[in-house]
Amino acid sequence: MDQYIQGNQRLWDEYADINFQSGLYDVAGFKSSPDPLSPLILSGVGDVSGKSLLHLQCHFGKDTLRWALAGATVTGIDFSAKAIQYAQQLATDMQIPATFIQTNLYDLPQVLEGAFDVVFTSYGVLGWLPDLQQWGAIIAHFLKPGGIFYIIEAHPTMRIFDDNDPQELRVKYPYFHEDTPEVIEPQGGNYADPHAVVTQTEYFWQHSLADILNALLDAGLQVEFFQEYPHIIWQALPFLVQDEQGYWRLPPAYPQLPLTFALRASQPEVR
Ligand SMILES: C[S@@+](CC[C@H](N)C(=O)[O-])C[C@H]1O[C@@H](n2cnc3c(N)ncnc32)[C@H](O)[C@@H]1O
Question: Which CATH architecture has domain 3-266?
């Protein structure tokens, strides 16, 4: 495996421990009273009852289990062994049927058979992937004819800004993809717990909107919709403000920019 992917795997093992204990992920609250997926996601994906669903980069499986509770037969995959252990523990504790597989996304065709009605992935996934063309081909590989792919993710425009500048939008990262990743040394804490001890370096790739769209189109998928939103579910920039629905937005004085996008694509009935 690539040295950068190995480095990120160590980082995500560390993050899995931090996140599982964190107030942000509130595992105890989820176990006692699991909240559903957001209306935005539910309306974008549609009814999943009786459908098979593959969740890529599932972390410790909260959303995977939410899909199971919505009626899908679910498989979640993630390269963090810690995250997958927590996911399996959560499924067992909550008595929710789910399959979880520990694998690098790029190795998935070698370790998983079959095809799915829905392939789903969300929030904070693309930057860890060096190659979106291969990602698109893997999604197409696992979709049944007529099956749908849905992604909701941080908008590439938002990703160019310095996420540590407390005052203003300052361009720090390139908009376009470069083969060599951004190297981000541990600065103390992570997005779920600013006080946690983080020791591992982060390797992060930028992807333009064209890269994302072309990866799916080149894999033969048909884009059904593409949407942009001026909000995001976590405090991705220090000076975002939270609205009454819990979304983070630029303060009203700023020109509004897209912070999230959602896209739905389908596998043609006949390939
Ligand atoms: C921000 S989290 C996704 C969170 C997710 N939206 C959720 O439901 O909690 C990103 C996930 O991608 C996983 N990941 C990163 N690179 C990967 C790779 N090459 N193969 C598989 N999983 C990967 C990490 O382990 C992590 O769990």
Answer: 3-Layer(aba) Sandwich (3.40)
Q: What value does the CA radius of gyration of the chain take, rounded to a whole number of Å?
A: 18
| pLDDT mean over 166-176 | 92
Distance from Cα 11 to the centre of ligand 1, integer Å: 11
Site to probe by mutation for ligand 1, drawn from 15, 122, 128, 233 as the one with most ligand atoms within 8 Å of Cβ, is 128
Residues 6+ away with beta carbon under 8 Å from 77: 54, 55, 56, 57, 58, 100, 101, 102, 103, 105, 108, 112
**pTM of the complete model:** 0.97
Range in 48-62, 81-95, 181-195, 204-218 the model is least confident about: 181-195
Task: List the residue whose alpha carbon is closest to atom 16 of ligand 1.
Answer: 128
H helical segments located in 145-208:
none
Q: What are the pLDDT digits (tens) for 179-193? A: 999 999 998 889 899
Nearest in space to 48 (alpha carbons), one of 148, 152, 145:
148
Substitution site in 11, 53, 54, 59 for ligand 1 pocket (most atoms within 8 Å of beta carbon): 59
Q: Count CA atoms within 13 Å of residue 26 on its CB side.
A: 7
